[in-house]
C-alpha cells in the first residue's frame, strides 16, 4: 500500500507539539532516523498509551505523505525496558546512547547494524541498570564510530605506519601515532589503548573495564575523531558527578569537557 510504512523502531526523542501531539525522532533499521508526528497522543485516552516514549522499541506503522514528517498510525511494544526506566543512571545512559545515534546517524541512510547495536544497548541497560558505567558507554561509542566508517586506526601509526612506539592519539590522523608523529596528538597510555582494542573486539555485553584516567583518554580519542571527521560534538559519555542534568534532557557540551 503506497504511503504505509511498517517498521521496527526505537524512540530516540519525543517532543510536545501543539495541544495534544508529539513529534518523535525514531531510529529504524531500514530508513535511518525518521521524524514523525503522533496526533492526540497526550490525551488521556490516546490509543497509543504510553508507548511513544523514549527508549521504547516498537513495531510501528506510519503514513508517509508529501511532507518530511510521517504520521504515526499504529504502534505495538516490542520492548518497553521497564527496569531501565526505574533507574536514574540507566535512564541517563539510555538518553546519551539515543542522542549519539540520532546525531551521528541523522539521515535516512539505512544502518541496520546501528539499529541492532542500539537495541542491544537498551536491552543490556534494562537487564542490568547498574551496568551503566562510563566504560560501557565508551564501548558503545567506539562501536558507533566503526558503524559510521570512522573506526580509529589502532594497529600501527596512523601517520607513518610504524607498528611500535605508539604513544599518542590524533583525531585528525584518525588513530594512534608513534613518537615521531606525535605533534598535534595527545598522550595515550597503554591502558587506554588496551581498552579500545578490547572494546572493539568484544560484544557490548562483554565490554571491558578500565581506570578513570584511561577512560578519559578514550573519551578524548572518540571526541576528537568525531570532531575532525564528522564535525560533531556529543554530550559527555556519562554524567559528570559535579553537574546534575535531568535524565533524558540533552545538555549542550560544556567547553571544559573536551
Ligand atoms: Zn608515525
Would you mind describing this structure in some detail?
This protein is α+β, with helices and mostly antiparallel strands. It has helices at 82-85, 88-104, 112-127, 134-147, 190-201, 212-230; strands at residues 4-17, 21-28, 32-38, 57-63, 70-79, 166-170, 175-178, 186-187. The strands form two sheets. A five-stranded mixed beta barrel has the order 1-2-3-5-4. A three-stranded antiparallel sheet has the order 7-6-8. The chain starts with a strand and ends in a 28-residue tail after the last helix. The model is unreliable at 242-258 (pLDDT under 50). The site of zinc ion has 8 residues, from strand 7.
